[in-house]
Design brief:
The protein has 150 residues and is an alpha+beta fold. The chain is built from four helices and eight strands, in the order αβαββαβββββα. Keywords: Membrane, Transmembrane, Transmembrane helix.
């Protein structure tokens, strides 16, 4: 091959690699609202939530929520979160938030300080198996206050 052919070949390969990197970056960034728009489009469909605080033995630190206003407040607090795919896991207290929606229950794993993972009972898109870091911060006082009231 001539020198010019090699240059064209390397440019094509570089463009393919660059396209893959850009696509990967786009897929790594999302928001809670965007991720959950197909699952929780109406908080009135949520019959109850159960939050387990996983820093102690099972069941001792558990709160069940049936009040629609509190459920709405918790879901809305997550809805503004900007998410970035991560391989790191939080090392703080973990909260398992069981959300019982009439059409599909799911669990939100929130690990302090800022890692979130969403798990469904059925197989969905691969983005639901990823862990995300909340890049714009999250006010966890809403959840912590529920355990103080207990």
């Amino acid at each position: 091959m001539s020198d010019r052919s090699w240059r064209v070949f390397f440019v094509v390969v570089a463009l393919i690699v660059l396209t893959g990197v850009v696509y990967s970056l786009i897929q790594s960034s999302t928001s809670f609202k965007e991720l959950m728009k197909d699952q929780v489009y109406d908080t009135e469909k949520i019959s109850f939530m159960k939050i387990d605080k996983r820093d102690s033995s099972y069941g001792e630190n558990s709160v069940e929520i049936t009040d629609p206003a509190t459920i709405d407040r918790i879901i809305n607090s997550f809805s503004n979160a900007k998410l970035w795919k991560t391989e790191n896991y939080g090392r703080g207290t973990e909260y398992m938030i069981w959300v019982n929606v009439e059409y599909t229950p799911f669990v939100i794993y929130f690990t302090e300080p800022d890692v979130i993972k969403i798990s469904f009972n059925r197989s969905l898109h691969k983005k639901y198996s990823w862990s995300y870091r909340m890049v714009n911060g999250y006010d966890k006082s809403i959840i912590e206050d529920l355990f103080k009231e207990k």
